[in-house]
């Protein structure tokens, strides 16, 4: 909870030197108790989701989403004090959703569906439809989460290998190179296979 003085001191004000501090501090500043409570539960749930399902890259993803969201808001948002953790929340939600799509891992896809079911209505928050709401934080948080999900798609949980992959022959080996019709089906006695024909044009 905060008053105007705290927002002016620790809030993120775009394109100002003082506002640079808000890149790090603004997610901890809220306008009132309702603002704080409305952000606490989704932040807790989404943080548990990312640290449980993507524990190998959770800290990296969380840090990148946190910083990139703040930097983009500082660079491109309208001149106003932006406070609250909603940008980080959007980043985590979009990271969890698109990670399942990019990775094509069954467990990650199931988590994507769950996030879509619980927080699908959040998508409207990226539009300037409510006065006094930092829709820029929502938008840039969503973009940051999507970008980080794609960037880290090769790290963390991956889809299980296809059962047919183990059966595929190694075409790079010398043994496979010798598996051709000349070796498998030798010609009758007195006959030979014709050499490979090469056509030449004048």
Question: What does the model show?
Answer:
The protein is mostly helical and 202 residues long. It has a domain at 43-78 and 85-151. The chain is built from nine helices and no strands. Helix 3 packs parallel to helix 5. It is elongated and about 100 Å long. The model has no long low-confidence stretch (mean pLDDT 83).
List the helices and strands and how they pair.
Blueprint: H1 4-10, H2 22-25, H3 33-53, H4 58-76, H5 86-103, H6 106-119, H7 135-151, H8 174-177, H9 181-184
What's this model, at a glance?
The protein is mainly alpha-helical. 53% of the residues lie in helices and 0% in strands.
- Which term fits the overall shape? elongated
Please bin the fraction of helical residues.
40-55%
Q: Give, in order, the helices and strands.
A: HHHHHHHHH
Q: How many strand elements? A: 0
Terminus-to-terminus distance: 86 Å
What number is the mean pLDDT?
A: 83
**Which sheet architecture does the biggest sheet show?**
none
Estimate what percentage of residues fall within beta strands. under 5%
């Amino acid at each position: 909870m905060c008053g105007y003085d705290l927002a002016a001191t620790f809030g993120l004000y775009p394109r100002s030197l003082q506002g640079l501090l808000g890149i790090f501090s603004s997610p901890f500043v809220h306008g009132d108790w309702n603002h704080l409570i409305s952000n606490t539960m989704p932040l807790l749930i989404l943080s548990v989701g990312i640290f449980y399902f993507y524990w190998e890259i959770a800290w990296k993803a969380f840090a990148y989403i946190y910083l990139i969201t703040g930097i983009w808001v500082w660079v491109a948002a309208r001149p106003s004090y932006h406070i609250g953790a909603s940008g980080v929340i959007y980043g985590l939600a979009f990271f969890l959703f698109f990670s399942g799509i990019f990775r094509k891992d069954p467990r990650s896809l199931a988590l994507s569906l769950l996030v879509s079911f619980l927080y699908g209505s959040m998508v409207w928050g990226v539009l300037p439809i409510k006065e006094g709401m930092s829709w820029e934080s929502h938008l840039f948080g969503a973009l940051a989460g999507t970008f980080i999900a794609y960037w880290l798609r090769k790290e963390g949980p991956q889809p299980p290998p296809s059962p047919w992959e183990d059966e595929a022959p190694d075409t790079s080996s010398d043994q496979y190179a010798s598996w051709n019709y000349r070796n498998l089906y030798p010609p009758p006695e007195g006959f030979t296979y014709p050499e490979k024909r090469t056509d030449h044009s004048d």
